Amino acid sequence: MEYLKTILIIGSINVVAVIGLTIFTGFTGLFSLGHAAFIAIGAYGAGILTYFYHVPLFLAILFGSILAGFISLIIGYPTLKGNLSSDSLAVALLGFGEAIRVILENLKITQGARGLPGIHIYSTMPVIIVVVIISILVARNLINSKYGRRFVAIREDSMAAEMLGVPLFKTKYFSFFISALYCGLSGGLFAHYFGFIQPAMFTMEQSTQILASVVCGGIGSITGPIIATYIFVAIPEIFRFAKLWRLVFYGAALVLTMIFRPSGLMGYQEINFSRFFNKYNRFNNKIRS
Amino acid sequence: MDLLEIKQIKKYFGGICALDDISFSVKRNEIFGIVGPNGAGKTTIFNLATGAYSISNGSIVFDGKIINGMRADQIIDLGVARTFQNIRLFKKLNAVDNIKAVLYHSASYNIFDALIRTNKYRKIEKIIDERAGALLKEMQLDKYSEMLSNNLSYGLQRKLEIARALALEPKLLLLDEPAAGMNPKEISEIINLIREVHSRFNLTTIIIEHHMSLINNLCSHIVVLNFGKKIAEGTADEIQKDPNVIEAYLGYPTHLKKEVDTYVRN
Known about the structure:
The structure holds two protein chains of two kinds.
Chain A: H1 2-27, H2 36-53, H3 57-81, H4 86-106, E1 116-117, H5 125-143, H6 146-156, H7 158-163, H8 168-194, E2 196-197, H9 204-217, H10 223-238, H11 246-260, H12 273-288
Antiparallel strand pairs in A: 1-2
Helix pairs in contact in A: 1-5, 1-6, 1-8, 1-9, 1-10, 2-3, 2-4, 2-8, 3-8, 6-8, 9-10, 10-11
Chain B: E1 4-13, E2 16-26, E3 31-35, H1 42-49, E4 57-62, E5 65-66, H2 72-78, E6 80-82, H3 95-100, H4 111-116, H5 119-138, H6 154-166, E7 172-176, H7 184-201, E8 204-208, H8 212-218, E9 221-226, E10 229-234, H9 236-241, H10 243-250, H11 257-265
C-alpha cells in the first residue's frame, strides 16, 4: 500500500510539471527541452528556504515557484523575442537547462554537487492532492479563457494569429511564464517529498520525460498528459520483475503510442464524462430496443 | 480624408524590388480592387498594410495615422483585418472556436477573473459565445459551427475566414484572392457575399483577385500592378482598355502596336 502511495505521489508531483509544459507545448505549440531547470529552480528555491531559514512550507513553495517564473522571464525574453522556430527554441532551452544545472553545482548556497540532504518532509498526500487539483482547475480555467484561446491560435497558425491581432511575443512570454510557475511548484513539492535534492536529479532526462508525457498524452489536451504521466510512472514499476528490461517496456510504450495514436492518447480533446454517458445511454437504449 | 493612403512605398527583399514607388488611396466605404499578374506585389501590399513586413521607404496612412513601423497587433487594433490567399484557418478548431479565438477585443476581464471564473468572466464569455453565434448565423455558417474547420468545404472555409476577419470589427477589410480555386457558381456566391458584407457592415474593402468577373462586378476603383510598379488606375472599363494592362497580361509585340491600338479603340 505504501508502495502504491509512493508511485501515486511521484506521479502527482510530475503531473504538476506536466500541466505546466502542456500549457507551453500542448496549447501554445512551442517545444522545450529545458523545463527540468525550472523544476530545479523551484526545488532549490523552496528547499533552501525551509532548510536554512525554516520558512513555512506554503510560503517556501510559493517562493520557489515565483523564482522559477522570474528566471523564465529572464531567459524567455531573448529566446521568445527572437521569434525562434519551435525546434530551435527547444534546443536553446536545452542549453539553458544544462546551464542552470551547472550553476547549481557551483553555487555556495546550493552546496554544489553534494546537494541539500535532510530537507523536512512536508509534501504529504493531502498537500499534494490539493495542489494537483488546484493546478488542474487553474489550467482548465486559463485554457478556456481569452488567454488560452490566444495560445491555441498561435499553436494552430502563428502567422495567421499575428495577422489577426494576437501579440505573438507577449502571448508566448506569458505562456512560458505560467509553465515555469507550474514547474517551480512541482520542484517545491519534489524537494519536500524526497527530502534530498542535488543538481544531478534535474538533467535533460527529466525534461524529455515530461515532454514525452505531454506529447504522448496529446497536444491540445489537459487530461491526456495527466493520464500519460501516471502511465509512464507506473510502467517501469509494473515491469519491475523484468529488471533492466523494464526501461525497454517504457521505450516501447512511447513508440507504440506514437505509432497508433500519432496525436497522443487524447489529442485535441478532453475526457468528457457527459459524452461518455451519452454513449452509454445510447448503447443501453439499443440493447433494450 | 481617405481611409487608406499609400504614399510612394518601396519594398526591397534583399536586392529585389518587390514594390517600386506605389501610391494610391482608398476612399471610405468603397470596394477597391488590386489586380496584376503573379508576382506583381499585390499580396506584399497587404503584408505591409498589416505590419507583417516592414516598409523600406514611403508611408502608409490609415485613418489619419501613419501605421508603418507599428506592430501587427497595434495595426489590427486600429481596425484593419485581412484574409489569406492560401486559407489560414485554425485547422484543428471548430468553426465557432475559430471566431472566438479572435473575439478578445470585447473581452475586458483580466487574468484573475479568468482563473477563478468570476461573474464578470461568466458574463463576458456568454456575450462572446452569443456574438460568435450571431456572426456565424449572419454568414450562414451556423449549421457548421461544431465542425472542424479543416473538414469544411473550400467555399465554406473562405466564408469562415471572412467571418473571422469580421469578428475583429474592422474598418478596412483586405481580401486576398477570395475566389481563388472556386467554380463560377461559387464565384457568383462570393460576389453576393462580399457585396452584402460591404453594405451591412459599412466596410471599406480592398480585394486582390485574378477573376475579372469578380473585380468588374464589385470594384468601383482598380489599381493594376506589374513587377512592383503601378501601371494603371481607374474604373473597370478604363483598366480594360489601357494598353499597359493589355501588355502586362498578353505581351505586346511592338511591330503590331498600331493594330492593337485600333483593336482597343474599337
